[in-house]
Write a structure and sequence with these properties.
The protein has 582 residues and is an alpha/beta fold. It folds into four domains: 121 residues, Glycogen Phosphorylase B (Rossmann fold, 3-Layer(aba) Sandwich), CATH 3.40.50; 149 residues, Glycogen Phosphorylase B (Rossmann fold, 3-Layer(aba) Sandwich), CATH 3.40.50.2000; 151 residues, Spore Coat Polysaccharide Biosynthesis Protein SpsA, Chain A, CATH 3.90.550; 87 residues, no CATH class. It has 20 helices and 21 strands. The chain has a six-stranded parallel β-sheet, with helices on both faces. A six-stranded parallel β-sheet has the order 9-8-7-10-11-12, sandwiched between helices. A four-stranded mixed β-sheet has the order 15-21-17-18. Strand 17 and strand 18 form a beta hairpin. The chain is globular, with a radius of gyration of 27 Å.
């Protein structure tokens, strides 16, 4: 099978962040990096590429987005940091861009606040990944060598750097500042020379210049100091942390959305307290990078993004064919086979269910065959290696029965249940996976929950079903499709809390089966709470409350008292089981 072609467009000298990404993609894609010296190169290479990646939001994407072919090409832009404060962001024809990658959340917020026609749904947060194999870990402790890595310019806070180190040097005469980088302007050279003399820091500030082997240079360092005004994430700090070096990070714009608060200082007094503090945990610093900022994490997110874009491309072709065959007046044609449709509230008496297979549908929704007749052999997949059969498409209809958007679940085609379970937990999303899906009826009976969890019924049930069939797969079929009318429902506090509590169900099965660690499970719940808060105005406090209970900082009884305030009468049984992993 011919590999899809990915074209990376970048200006000369600005491809540092691309090298490892490109190497990591060569196995799966035909990859080409284009150092653009002439706009003609963009015209030529875009025409043959399946996905066009523009590194930096600069004049290259400004030009490319206005080309006629841009309207039907798959285009990704990665915005790092400086571009957010330039006119480039206003010069892009954003409707022709499929995805905008930001390396941090705060930069996305800054740009979205400025560019009103930029759709947030097109944005992705993918941090720069750290190659952990290049930075050797070692257990360390307090010492006297402070490292600074990077240019010395106005963005890096050069005056604060000198004053912060002076305060550290006053603690003990053995402290030294080692600088790996260079001055970008002569005025900073003059300032540093003057202040080193005035502060009596001669022989205590050592210039090492740019390092070809930063890993080796960092070996004898005890602290990594950052005094920046704003960063996307500060890769050099993360590289040092991956070696087990303690970070001293100035509270730059966005710092606390990237790093734990205990690594961040807002005043020079706070900085010196962090140095004097005896707490030094190399394993913790390394783990923080391993769990969220590794090169593998970055690669996985990029591959997922590519897959989505390429699937969408196939889908757009398939759907036009699909709609030629669909007759919305056809009704639910599954009644002829031995299945039962359950409506959302599950208000059918389970004792009366005696069919072999069950299709899950909402009341009033429509299930239609794609082919002239539904192939009953599809149900035989449930007797083999598959845990469920799901239609590839769920179409959303407006009041006029017009399709205005849809879910494409082909991403889960033949995926192991363990993988899908992990995805449900780490994203908190299930792509309406239950709608129109067919199960063995006994699976519904054995894993459904009661109406106390309305709003999270599908999520809980599906997590339980998948947990008992981790090695089975998901069958995605195009033999039929699911149509539903969608109304915008504003989520109240109860439904938000219930959804966050339901995360503990999938979280429990992920931890139990060593799919994620207990520590990562807690962090996932916190991260989901932050995201829900941004969308709905609340959620983060609930997620912190859940994590406190899971960590046994508060009792389960006290937690139940809190959730009772939102009329949630009980907890899923998995909640208590997850607490026991502490």
């Amino acid at each position: 099978m011919k590999k899809k072609k990915i074209a990376f467009f970048v200006k000369q000298g600005l491809d540092n962040f691309l090298k490892d990404i490109i190497e990591g993609l060569r196995d799966q894609y035909e990859v080409k990096k284009i150092i653009v010296l002439d706009y003609k190169q963009i015209n030529e290479e875009m025409s043959s590429a399946d996905i066009c990646w523009f590194e930096w939001c600069d004049e290259l994407i400004g030009y490319a987005s206005k080309l006629k072919m841009a309207s039907f090409k798959k285009i990704i832009v990665r915005l790092h940091s400086y571009e957010a404060f330039t006119g480039y962001i206003y010069d892009v024809k954003w409707e022709n861009v499929n995805k905008i990658i930001f390396v941090s959340e705060h930069l996305r917020d800054i740009v979205l606040n400025k560019v009103k026609n930029l759709d947030k749904l097109k944005t992705e947060i993918i941090s720069n990944g750290i190659d952990l194999e290049k930075f050797k870990y070692a257990d360390r402790g307090s010492g006297f060598n402070v490292a600074y890595v990077g240019y010395i310019n106005f963005k890096k806070g050069p005056m604060l750097l000198m004053h912060a180190f002076k305060a550290i040097a006053d603690i003990d005469s053995r402290y030294k500042l080692y600088i790996a980088g260079e001055f970008q302007e002569e005025r900073y050279v003059l300032y540093f020379n003057q202040m080193i003399s005035e502060m009596g820091l001669q022989n205590r500030v050592i210039y090492s210049g740019w390092q070809k082997n930063l890993d080796s240079w960092l070996n004898d360092k005890n602290y990594i100091l950052c005094t920046s005004l704003l960063e996307s994430q500060n890769v050099s700090v993360m590289q040092a942390m991956s070696k087990g070096i303690k970070p001293l990070i100035h509270n730059f714009v966005g710092a606390k959305t990237i790093y734990p608060k205990k690594y961040v200082w807002s005043s020079i007094d706070e900085c010196t307290k962090m140095v004097k503090d005896k707490e030094y945990n190399s394993r913790e610093y390394r783990s923080y990078i391993e769990n969220g900022f590794s090169r593998n994490t970055e690669k996985d997110k990029i591959l997922k993004l590519f897959n989505q874009l390429l699937i969408e491309e196939d889908s757009s072709k398939n759907i036009s064919d699909y709609l030629k065959k669909v007759n919305l007046k056809g009704g639910n044609k599954f009644k002829d086979i031995k299945t039962l449709t359950l409506i959302t509230k599950r208000n059918l008496h389970e004792a009366k269910i005696n069919t072999e297979n069950t299709i899950i549908a909402n009341e009033g929704d429509i299930i239609l065959p794609y082919m002239d007749e539904f192939n009953e052999n599809t149900l035989n997949y449930l007797n083999k290696d598959y845990v469920m059969v799901a239609p590839r498409y769920v179409f959303n209809l407006n009041d006029k029965n017009q399709i205005f958007n849809y879910y494409d679940r082909n991403f889960y085609k033949d995926a192991p249940a363990a993988y899908v379970l992990k995805t449900f937990f780490t994203t908190g999303e299930m792509s309406c996976m239950n709608l129109g899906s067919i199960y063995r009826t006994k699976e519904i009976l054995n894993n459904s929950t009661n109406e106390a969890f309305e709003g999270a019924l599908d999520y809980i049930m599906l997590s339980r079903v998948f947990s008992k069939a981790l090695n089975k797969k998901v069958k995605i079929t195009e033999e039929y499709a699911y149509f539903r009318k969608v109304k915008q429902i504003e989520k109240d506090k109860r439904s938000i809390l219930l959804q966050l509590i339901s995360l503990t169900v999938s979280g429990y099965y992920c931890v139990k089966n060593n799919i994620v660690s207990f520590k990562d499970a807690k962090q996932t719940i916190l991260d989901r709470g932050k995201l829900v808060e941004k969308i709905n105005g609340c959620g983060y406090e609930y997620s912190k409350l859940i994590v406190k209970c899971l960590s046994k900082e508060i009792s389960e009884e006290d937690f139940i008292k809190e959730v009772l305030k939102e009329n949630i009468a009980e907890l899923p049984s998995e909640f208590s089981k997850l607490r026991k992993f502490l």
